[in-house]
């Protein structure tokens, strides 16, 4: 076993890279990042499908301490976000600290020594005082439990594992799913496929996406005029933050967004029968609201079919739906989302007294402020339970968590503590508050979504304003923790 490190971070996406930067700036030099893939970037490394882009405006999608002013578009494409993360890792000295191709399989806390023992898929073991999970919520692709998947004779892959070696031109392509990835993929494939079949289980709400390239003079002004980018960032933040009122407090405000949906649908879809199939049967905002200006037009192309009949099975030649109709396909794309509520799975995390985290979370994940878990000392989660958003940039939430975790580590260093562990009563009180507040949000309005566990418990989303979360995490409260002196 190697000598113990101060901090080991699992994952090298936005959370891991940003956390490492902030810890290094705070004087914690012995920081190591373990990344299972061969490159950094997290979800922006994995999702390279055609049309991949962000649905948060560019000026909100960078760290506050490293603002990017030269985005090419109002909504950033995948490759620019990945390049930005690589830039941050190089500039702030994080890149040499990343161990690529190193997947964590297990971590066990040694209470006597106050150390985490971390086992990897490479067969080695590391030791660390502090363990930070920056795995994110959207990192484990899910394939639907449809019979016959293995029998398909053509190329098939999940949208987050795109096979760029597959020739798509002139092929019959089937896309299963109509979520955030699918609405970006479908317009791209419509321009290449001989026949494109889209299988929809439930219709999403799709509103117009006001995207366009930045003009040369706009980029020049952003680059040269002091404060202009900051003003744009602040305006967008306030505009998006106001949308939280509809999600968490006054669901009837969603009617204003629903008007945009209806206008977008009417503006692109003339066929009343198709419009009906594209109209969701659940309240606006209950599931993720999607942004696109070209999804609906793609569905009107003569060689594109929208199928709403339930899928019966996958066959060697395509997809069979209820009633026995078979839809022929040469390529099958699963745009079927992620195991978002499993959080740290499939890693085995063992805390004090042999407590296993997945067992502790069998009825739904919970963590105090979405960051610390009782019984698991010196373990910190980034983008954990109750920290996802439906209305603003997740980077703002991550930066709140960076400050909180750094504050915990500084307090431990100053007080000479071996470990800290959030008190069960503090965690339980936070969990009760979250469950109570979430019951009155639009996410609990009667639909199934990736925000929920199989039992219908919402465990992903923050039921409040992002500035309220920042205030709650401005500094760790010593009353919330128990500790052991070194």
Please explain how this structure is put together.
This protein is an alpha/beta fold. The protein has two domains: 5-140 and 339-485, FAD/NAD(P)-binding domain, CATH 3.50.50; 149-232 and 239-334, FAD/NAD(P)-binding domain (3-Layer(bba) Sandwich). 29% of the residues lie in helices and 18% in strands. It has helices at 14-25, 43-46, 78-91, 182-190, 216-224, 228-241, 244-249, 254-268, 272-277, 295-299, 357-360, 394-415, 424-438, 466-472; strands at 5-10, 31-34, 98-99, 104-110, 115-120, 125-133, 155-158, 172-176, 195-199, 206-207, 290-291, 304-307, 311-315, 318-321, 326-328, 331-334, 348-350, 379-381, 417-422, 481-485. The strands form five sheets. Strands 1, 2, 3, 4, 5, 6, 17 and 18 form an eight-stranded mixed sheet that branches. A five-stranded parallel sheet has the order 7-16-8-9-12, covered by helices on one side. The chain has a three-stranded antiparallel sheet with strand order 13-14-15, with no helix packed on it. Helix 1 packs parallel to helix 12 and helix 12 packs parallel to helix 14. It is globular, with a radius of gyration of 23 Å. The model has no long low-confidence stretch (mean pLDDT 95).
């Amino acid at each position: 076993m190697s000598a113990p490190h101060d901090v080991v971070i699992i994952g090298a996406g936005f959370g891991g890279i940003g956390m490492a930067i902030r810890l290094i700036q705070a004087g914690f030099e012995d920081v190591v990042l373990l990344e299972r893939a061969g490159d950094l970037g997290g979800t922006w490394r994995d999702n390279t499908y055609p049309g991949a882009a962000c649905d948060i405006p560019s000026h909100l999608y960078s760290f506050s301490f490293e603002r990017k002013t030269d985005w090419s578009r109002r909504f950033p494409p995948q490759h620019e976000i990945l390049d930005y993360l690589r830039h941050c890792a190089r500039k702030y000295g994080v890149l040499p600290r990343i161990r690529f191709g190193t997947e964590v399989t297990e971590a066990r806390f040694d209470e006597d020594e106050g150390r985490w023992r971390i086992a990897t898929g490479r067969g080695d073991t590391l030791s660390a005082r502090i363990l930070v999970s920056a795995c994110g919520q959207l990192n484990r692709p899910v394939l639907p439990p449809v019979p016959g998947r293995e029998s398909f004779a053509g190329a098939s892959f999940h949208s987050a594992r795109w096979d760029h070696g597959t020739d798509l031109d002139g092929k019959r392509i089937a896309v299963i799913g109509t979520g955030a990835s699918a609405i970006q993929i479908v317009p791209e494939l419509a321009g290449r496929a001989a026949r494109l079949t889209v299988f929809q289980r439930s219709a999403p709400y799709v509103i117009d996406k006001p995207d366009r390239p930045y003009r040369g003079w706009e980029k020049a002004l952003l680059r040269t005029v002091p404060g202009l980018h900051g003003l744009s960032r602040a305006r967008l933040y306030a505009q998006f933050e106001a949308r939280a009122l509809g999600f968490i407090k006054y669901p009837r405000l969603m009617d204003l967004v629903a008007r945009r949906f209806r206008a977008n649908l009417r503006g692109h879809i003339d066929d009343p029968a198709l419009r009906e199939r594209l109209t969701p049967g659940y309240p606006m905002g209950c599931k993720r609201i999607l942004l696109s200006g070209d999804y609906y037009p793609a569905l009107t192309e003569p060689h594109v079919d929208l199928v709403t009949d339930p899928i019966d099975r996958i066959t060697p030649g395509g997809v069979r739906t209820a009633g026995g109709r078979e839809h022929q396909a040469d390529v099958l794309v699963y745009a079927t989302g992620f195991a978002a509520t499993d959080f740290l799975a499939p890693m085995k995390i063992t805390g004090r007294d042999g407590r296993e985290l997945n067992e502790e979370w069998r009825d739904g994940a919970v963590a105090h402020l979405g960051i610390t878990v009782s019984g698991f000392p010196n373990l910190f989660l980034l983008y954990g339970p109750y920290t996802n958003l439906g209305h603003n940039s997740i980077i703002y939430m991550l930066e709140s968590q960076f400050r909180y975790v750094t504050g915990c580590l500084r307090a431990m260093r100053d007080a000479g503590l071996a470990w800290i562990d959030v008190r069960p009563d503090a965690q339980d009180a936070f969990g009760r508050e979250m469950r109570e507040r979430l019951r009155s949000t639009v996410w609990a309005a009667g639909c199934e979504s990736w925000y929920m566990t199989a039992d219908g418990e919402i465990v992903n989303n923050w039921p409040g304003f992002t500035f309220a979360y920042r205030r709650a995490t401005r500094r760790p409260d010593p009353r919330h923790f128990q500790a052991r002196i070194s």
